[in-house]
Structure formats: C-alpha cells, structure tokens
Amino acid sequence: MAAAAWLCLYLLPAVGGFAQTPAPTAAAPASAAVPPSGDAAAKHAKRTACLKDAKAKKLVGAEKTSFLKNCLAAP
Predict the structure, then answer these.
(1) Do 30 and 56 form a contact (C-beta atoms < 8 A)?
(2) What gap in Å lies between CA 41 and CA 39, rounded to an integer?
(3) CA angle at residue 36 from 75 to 29, to 5 degrees?
(4) Is 51 within 8 Å of 45 (Cβ atoms)?
(5) H-type helices in 1-75, by residue range?
(6) Distance CA 36, CA 73 (A)
(7) Could you tell me if 64 and 54 are in contact, meaning their C-beta atoms sit under 8 angstroms apart?
(8) Would you tell me how many other CB atoms lie within 10 Å of the CB of residue 71?
(9) b/e per residue, 41-70, with b = 16+ CB within 10 A?
(10) What is the sign, positive or negative, of the torsion defined by CA atoms of 7, 13, 16, 18?
(11) Who's near 72: CB < 8 A, 6+ residues apart?
(12) What is the pLDDT of residues 28-55, one digit of tens each?
C-alpha cells in the first residue's frame, strides 16, 4: 500500500498534476545597482581604512568604538 502511494506521488508531477514554479532567485540589493557618489565613496573608503586599523590594533568593545569615532572625525 505504501509503495502504491509513493508511486502515485512520484508519477503525479510527470503527468501534470502539480504546477511547477521556478525557484526564486536572490535579487541584488538596490544599493549595489547605483554607484556611490564621490562623497559617499570617500566616506566608505575612510571607514574601511579605520576598521582595518582597528583590527590591526586588535581593538574591541569601547576601545574600538572610541577609536573609530576619532578616526572617522579626523580630516
């Protein structure tokens, strides 16, 4: 009995019993479609550099937060 039920469920999609929908694809974030402006790109580059420095200095917690705040505020 179980084999008959399995066989019916196995063959049913081939006969057209179920509508098959394509798998959803991941959409790219909206921010990736628009290139950053010059000012935004400069801020991003500075933040990346500050984060890299903080990681090199092995800063964590409040020390890292304070360092990033000072680093990002510097010209």
Answers:
(1) no
(2) 5
(3) 130
(4) no
(5) 2-15, 30-33, 38-56, 61-73
(6) 20
(7) yes
(8) 15
(9) eeeeeeeeebeeebeeeeeeeeebeebbee
(10) positive
(11) 46, 47, 50
(12) 555 555 566 778 999 999 999 999 999 9
Question: Two tokens at 44?
Answer: 């991003």
What tokens were used for 33?
A: 């479609």
The closest of 48, 49, 54 to 67, measured between CA atoms, is 54
The tokens describing 68, both together, are 């990033």
Structure tokens given for 64 = 């890292």
pLDDT digits (tens, 9 = 90+) for 7-28: 666 665 555 555 556 666 665 5
